[in-house]
Amino acid sequence: MQAKKLSLHHIIKAPKTAVEKVPVLLLLHGYGSNEEDLFSFAAELPEELFIVSVRAPRDLQPYGYSWYDIHYTATEKISNDEHAIESRDAVATFIDEVVDNYPVDASNVTLLGFSQGTILSYSVAFTYPEKVKNVIALSGYLNHNIFDFNTDKNYSSLDFYCSHGSVDQVIPVEAAREITPFMEEHNLKHVYEEFPVGHGVAPQNFYSFKAWLEKRI
User: Fold this and answer.
1) What is the CATH topology of the domain spanning 10-214?
2) CA–CA distance from 174 to each of 166, 167, 169 (Å)?
3) Residue with more model confidence, 71 or 31
4) How confident is the model at residue 71 (pLDDT cuts 50, 70, 90)?
5) How far apart are CA 169 and CA 82, in angstroms?
6) Is the pLDDT at 33 greater than 80, yes or no?
7) For residues 163 and 193, is the Cβ–Cβ distance under 8 A?
8) Residue 63: Cβ-neighbour burial (10 angstroms; 0-12, 13-18, 19+)
């Protein structure tokens, strides 16, 4: 099966056995990367998944893509939240397009993000909980400025696997450790794990989230 031309550029891996209404996994890469990066996981993930690896919409120079711009000052890193919200809504629209154009189950959508892709995945899930079932959130944190957590919405179907490197020099682990208190405060299903690595995905981390996902698709 060939990838269709939708609002966001993407590549796909369809299940070996063609059936209707299969679980779908959307991969959202990190800042400066592209759709090929997380797609390297695809061959090792459950075969029944329909995998869609998405390219972020913003071009970076000299290469790569981002979900939103990041500006650095002498003392801090500043995210462009306006761009992030635009990308959040673009992903929500793209989920609908995937459901309409591929033989996938609209009630079994998983987002897997890394770094900036994780930050965006949280924002999509909290703003549009009706569109998402599972989130695998690798090496990211909660940016409360880019999602609308509304107690009138139903978050009971959401389930999160969250992980971080304990020696991450890009996103300090302290930022990720704020995730569990937030999840517990709002009674959200989640797992949080740390691994003795920097800003990346250790083999143990991969096998852990794979096992978590296999029980939920």
Assistant:
1) Rossmann fold (3.40.50)
2) 9, 10, 11
3) 31
4) confident
5) 25
6) yes
7) yes
8) exposed
* Residue 38 host element (H or E): helix 35-39
What token pair was written down for 79?
């995210």
Read off the pLDDT of each residue in 7-35 and give the average, rounded to a whole number. Answer: 94
Helix axes 116-127, 81-101, angle to 10 degrees: 70
**Assigned token pair, 12:** 């796909």
Q: Do residues 163 and 128 make contact, with C-beta atoms less than 8 angstroms apart?
A: no
Characterize the bridge pairing of strands 159-165 and 134-138: parallel
pLDDT score of 91 = 98
pLDDT at position 57: 97
Q: What span, in angstroms and rounded, lies between the C-alpha atoms of 217 and 209?
A: 12
Half-sphere exposure at residue 24, Cβ-oriented, CA atoms within 13 angstroms: 25
Using CA atoms, how far apart are residues 171 and 100, in angstroms rounded to an integer? 36
Residue 151 pLDDT greater than 90, yes or no = no
pLDDT in tens, 42-56: 999 999 999 999 999
**Six-digit token string for 88:** 């959040």
